[in-house]
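Propose amino acids for all 231 sites.
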């Protein structure tokens, strides 16, 4: 499996890259890929997301520079921003296990174990997807699976601006809160260390060897995936 460690990527550009990677994976031109990145402030709506769960006015969002995008993943409304580690696994589940529930629970397990590496005790909440600390969400999950190939994925709150979550009703769940590693620990761990932990735990849970890959900026822009090679 290849790892693409990217920086701060706009949501629409990252989505376009996912679409290209999914197509390449479907055609057998690349291996499975794990994308890790951050987004500038953005609100995304799942394919059946309710726009009424965006409680801020469009005028306020515009003043804050926060875009709104509807995407293909499951789930409702989610906020993404700097300080949040986003993971987009492009996996062909035919090479793993053709089971949506297994896949989602495996993603949860990756993040539960990664959080434990930093002394954060998190777990599942019965009847709810994601990773939780009590009744507060610390990892949001939302996936799309087409012909058993996955995209979209998870968002781990390392040190985002938690006040931005007040602009929405996260996942449409009024009764639950949101937290972060920074809030739990008192200070945020280095994002680079969190990335390392997530990669190690992903490798462990999914039973794959993960190799760093390089995707040149110019090739990302024009969608030529020829340089998506491990090293």
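Proposal:
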């Amino acid at each position: 499996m290849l790892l693409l460690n990217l920086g701060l990527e706009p949501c629409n550009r990252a989505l376009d890259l996912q679409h290209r990677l999914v197509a390449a994976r479907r055609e057998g031109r690349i291996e499975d890929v794990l994308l890790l990145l951050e987004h500038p402030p953005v609100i995304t709506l799942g394919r059946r997301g309710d726009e009424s769960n965006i409680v801020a006015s469009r005028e306020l969002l515009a003043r804050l520079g926060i875009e709104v995008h509807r995407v293909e993943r499951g789930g409702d409304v989610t906020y993404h921003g700097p300080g949040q580690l986003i993971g987009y696994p492009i996996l062909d589940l035919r090479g793993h296990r053709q089971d949506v529930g297994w896949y989602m629970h495996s993603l949860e397990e990756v993040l539960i174990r990664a959080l434990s590496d930093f002394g954060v005790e998190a777990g599942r909440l019965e009847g709810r997807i994601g990773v939780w600390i009590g009744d507060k969400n610390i990892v949001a999950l939302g996936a799309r699976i087409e012909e058993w190939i996955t995209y979209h994925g998870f968002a781990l709150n390392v040190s985002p601006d938690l006040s931005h979550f007040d602009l929405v009703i996260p996942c449409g769940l009024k009764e639950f809160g949101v937290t972060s590693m920074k809030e739990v620990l008192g200070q945020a761990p280095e994002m680079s260390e969190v990335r390392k932990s997530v990669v190690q735990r992903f490798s462990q849970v999914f039973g794959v060897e993960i190799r760093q890959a390089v995707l040149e900026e110019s090739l990302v822009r024009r969608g030529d995936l020829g340089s998506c090679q491990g090293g």
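Helices lie at 11-26, 58-64, 100-116, 181-185, 191-206, 217-222. The chain has one domain: 2-230.
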